[in-house]
Specification:
Number of domains: 2
Structural class: alpha/beta
CATH architecture of the largest domain: 3-Layer(aba) Sandwich
Number of helices: 8
Radius of gyration: 19 Å
Largest sheet: 5 strands, parallel
Distance between the termini: 28 Å
Strand content: 15-25%
Strand order of the largest sheet: 2-1-3-4-5
CATH topology of the largest domain: Rossmann fold
Length: 230
């Protein structure tokens, strides 16, 4: 029932061939993609899909990439999403303008797909480290996403794939309160229908596994809001 939740990359490019080639290469590397052909569509998809990172062309019809970036970075709900700006403008003043508008990185066209992929992974190491093989730790809990292993106070913790992804989400953002709906989107994916009560069942399993060798329950239930680590 559970599906892998690879990072979702929103590709915003008005040139169809470039958009499809980039999306194809991202999917070949294991990413999920959403695609927008203009600025309005990019803003709509960002609100609907909550992408993990946005690859944004500067030159877009109607609403420019710079304006899209500015709007995203001024909204609390979207300002933390990394934005990589693509542009044929190679002058220093244009790079500076893109970065000052809020872009997290700036790539000049024509670009190497392998370099762009490396830059995407670099941004995701900061925002979703478990998805790019980073080892995470919180208190006495360690999660090794490459080897798919979890340890608590030196003891191996056996988790199913869903519990592992739940723990990874919590450990990427300790202290953040996740609603059941947010956990469903992150762990199960938006395309899968799962009852929100299923989240409670898997949280219970995760708690039991983490406390099997002793220690306090590291997960906190926030009444009326959801769950948090720490």
């Amino acid at each position: 029932m559970a599906v892998p939740t690879a990072p979702l990359v929103l590709v915003v490019e008005d040139e169809p061939a470039q958009r499809e080639v980039l999306a194809y290469n991202l999917e070949a590397e294991g990413f999920r993609t959403a695609r927008a052909a203009n600025g309005e569509e990019a803003l709509l998809l960002t609100a609907e899909e909550s992408p993990d990172i946005i690859v944004l062309d500067w030159m877009l019809p109607n609403v420019s990439g710079i304006e899209v970036c500015r709007r995203l970075k001024t909204r609390n709900e979207t300002r933390a999403i990394p934005v990589i700006m693509l542009s044929a403008r190679s002058e220093e003043v244009d790079r500076v303008r893109g970065l000052e508008t809020g872009a997290d990185d700036y790539v000049v066209k024509p670009y190497s797909v392998s370099e762009l992929l490396a830059r995407i992974r670099a941004q995701l190491r900061r925002t979703r480290p478990a998805t790019v093989g980073q080892e995470l730790s919180f208190g006495d809990i360690t999660l090794d996403s490459e080897q798919h292993k979890v340890f608590r106070d030196g003891n191996a913790v056996k988790l199913g794939p869903t519990e592992f992804r739940l723990l990874a989400a919590f450990m990427e953002k300790p202290g953040r309160v996740w609603s059941r709906e947010q956990l469903l989107d992150r762990v199960w994916g938006r395309d899968i229908y799962v009852d929100t009560r299923t989240v409670d069942v898997h949280i219970g399993r995760l708690r039991k596994a983490l406390c099997k060798h002793g220690g306090e329950d590291p997960l906190r239930t926030v009444r009326g809001a959801g769950y948090a680590l720490g």
